[in-house]
């Protein structure tokens, strides 16, 4: 079978896969996190900052939802688009499963390694809020505070979100 790859088209499709995976992953975190202080959107993706370590059950839900979304988009872009970014892929069930599983496993594995690093080097509470706020400001990310986050800033730092960001920036 002759396989032909359109490199620029494939690069755009892979970028779409990564964006869709991370957006769906973080949407589950935003929707299900009671201790969420803020979330930010920037050039390096979405960041979610909570006071407590997420439970394993929620992490599994995040990984599962993101993997299912990615599998659907990967199948659609590899086998339903005309022309596909990689022409000549095997159209058998095993070939399609393998072609879809490769991006799902690769991107999910990178996220699992990130979770393992966060669990090995934990940083939670006020230290995490300060660190992530500084990192988000350094990357010019847009920061959105939740109601619980505003209450946390008033209670712990005696500030509003604007004052807190100004204090962290300098």
Textual characterization of the structure:
- There is one protein chain.
- By secondary structure, the protein is an alpha+beta fold.
- The chain has one domain (4-169).
- It is built from six helices and five strands; from the N terminus they run E-H-E-E-H-E-H-H-E-H-H.
- The chain starts with a strand and ends with a helix.
- 21% of the residues are buried.
List keywords for this structure.
170 residues; alpha+beta; 5 strands; 65% helix
In a nutshell, what does this entry contain?
The chain is built from six helices and five strands. With 170 residues, it is α+β, with helices and mostly antiparallel strands.
Strand fraction equals: 5-15%
DSSP strand tally: 5
User: Radius of gyration in whole Å, from Cα?
Assistant: 19 Å
Instruction: Tell me the series of helices and strands, N- to C-terminal.
Output: EHEEHEHHEHH
Parts with pLDDT < 50 across at least 5 consecutive residues: none
Tally of helical segments: 6
| Oligomeric description of these chains | single chain
Topology:
Elements: E1 4-5, H1 7-32, E2 36-42, E3 45-50, H2 56-80, E4 86-87, H3 93-120, H4 126-138, E5 142-145, H5 147-156, H6 161-169
Antiparallel strand pairs: 1-4, 2-3, 2-5
Helix pairs in contact: 1-2, 2-3
């Amino acid at each position: 079978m002759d396989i032909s790859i359109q490199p620029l088209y494939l690069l755009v499709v892979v970028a779409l896969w990564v964006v869709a995976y991370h957006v769906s992953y973080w949407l589950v975190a935003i929707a299900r996190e009671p201790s969420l202080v803020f979330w930010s959107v920037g050039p390096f993706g979405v960041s979610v900052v909570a006071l407590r370590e997420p439970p394993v059950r929620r992490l599994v839900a995040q990984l599962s939802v993101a993997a299912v979304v990615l599998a659907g988009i990967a199948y659609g872009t590899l086998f339903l688009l005309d022309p596909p970014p990689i022409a000549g892929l095997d159209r058998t069930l095993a070939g399609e499963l393998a072609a879809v599983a490769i991006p799902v496993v690769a991107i999910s594995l990178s996220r699992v390694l990130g979770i393992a690093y966060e669990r090995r080097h934990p940083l939670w509470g006020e230290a995490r809020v300060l660190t992530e706020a500084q990192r988000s400001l350094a990357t010019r990310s847009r920061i959105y505070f939740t109601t619980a986050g505003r209450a946390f800033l008033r209670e712990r730092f005696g500030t509003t979100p604007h004052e807190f960001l100004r204090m962290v920036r300098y």
